[in-house]
Amino acid sequence: MIRNLDMTTLRSFLAVSEHGGVTRAAAALNLTQSAVSMQLKRLEEALDISLLDRSNRKIGLTASGEQLLSYAKRLVEMNDEAVSRLTDQVWEGEITFGVPHDIIYPIIPKVLKRFNAAYPRVRVQLSSSYSTALLESYGRGEVDLILTTETNAGPGGETLTKLPLLWYGAPGGTAYKKRPLPLANCRNCLFRSRVIKELDDHGIPWETAIDSNSDGAIEATASADLGVMTILEGSSPRQLEMIPPGSGLPDLGTQRINVYGACTPRNELVAKLAEMVREGFCARAPMAIREA
Questions:
Q1: Which residues, at least 6 apart from 261, have a Cβ–Cβ distance to it below 8 Å?
Q2: Do the Cβ atoms of 205 and 187 come closer than 8 Å?
Q3: Residues 77 and 217 occupy one common structural domain
Q4: pLDDT at 58
Q5: 3-state DSSP call for residue 75?
Q6: Angle at 145 between CA 139 and CA 146, to 5 degrees
Q7: What does DSSP say about strands 229-232 and 122-128: parallel, antiparallel, or unpaired?
Q8: Any idea what the CATH number is for the domain that residue 30 is in?
Q9: Which residues fall within 8 angstroms of residue 82, CB to CB, at 6 or more apart?
Q10: What is the count of structural domains for the chain?
Q11: Distance between alpha carbon 145 and the CA centroid of its chain, in Å?
Q12: pLDDT in tens, 201-231
């Protein structure tokens, strides 16, 4: 007997596996937790297999679930592409989207891929710069939508999430022990004044390890153990390692990731991109599935 996979249940399965559990998946899909749980149950019953391993405290995918995951991604992508290309005759144009360098990964590429699948005729022009420069560009009307990293949200800004600001350096490095502390931050980095204030308040002498506005140069300096830098949790490049608490460096608190242009979008396309950005940050979670 031929059995057909239901696209709705596959979407719920993908959301749970990608977003870290039923709670976040439900938020991303705009469904209730019970609805997502029911769809997972329907999918398991249709295939007569277990997709989630519930034997441990942290729920993960079974071997069958991992195998289905690759198929589910392809099936949903092909479905969305076919529907978009056959029915989308209206959505055309260009959106300018500004994002600070340090929060592009891991969420923005996923958002851009999803938006392109839904609106293949719409071009998203991604611009990477500092929050201050992006706010100025947005104020001049040069960009449609921007993300920023700020201590608070300004007029028209909407906070998507808060993330800890952490210290990073070379793996196994010792730069964080040096005094004066060699500090590697871009000249226009919004975190710089806050970091310097914390160091001064804690009586920790510091010096500039590199004078540059190049993110690549700053990261290279830190990865060579010639300085330490500050990065939002989850946004660090692979060549750097978090300096653990208790290392003698002050706690830097949290920073807000804000979006501007979402509350009063300039057109419906900007509103749709903004909603996908919201969902991406709402669903941000560790790779492991935390709850059923």
A1: 138, 143, 144, 145, 146, 156, 270, 274
A2: no
A3: no
A4: 65
A5: helix
A6: 75
A7: unpaired
A8: 1.10.10.10
A9: none
A10: 3
A11: 16
A12: 999 999 999 999 888 899 999 999 999 999 9
pTM: 0.69
Question: pLDDT tens digit string along 40-87?
Answer: 999 999 999 999 877 766 668 889 999 999 999 999 888 887 877 776
Is 185 inside any structural domain? yes
The SS3 of residue 92 is: coil
Structure tokens at 205: 């002498």
Place of tokens 């700020």: 150
Strands annotated E in the chain: 52-53, 60-61, 93-99, 122-128, 145-150, 157-169, 181-183, 206-208, 229-232, 241-242, 254-260
First-to-last alpha carbon distance for the chain, in angstroms, is: 30
| Per-residue pLDDT at 120 | 86
Cα Dmax for the chain = 74
Closest to 190 measured CA to CA, from 224, 157, 215, 209: 215
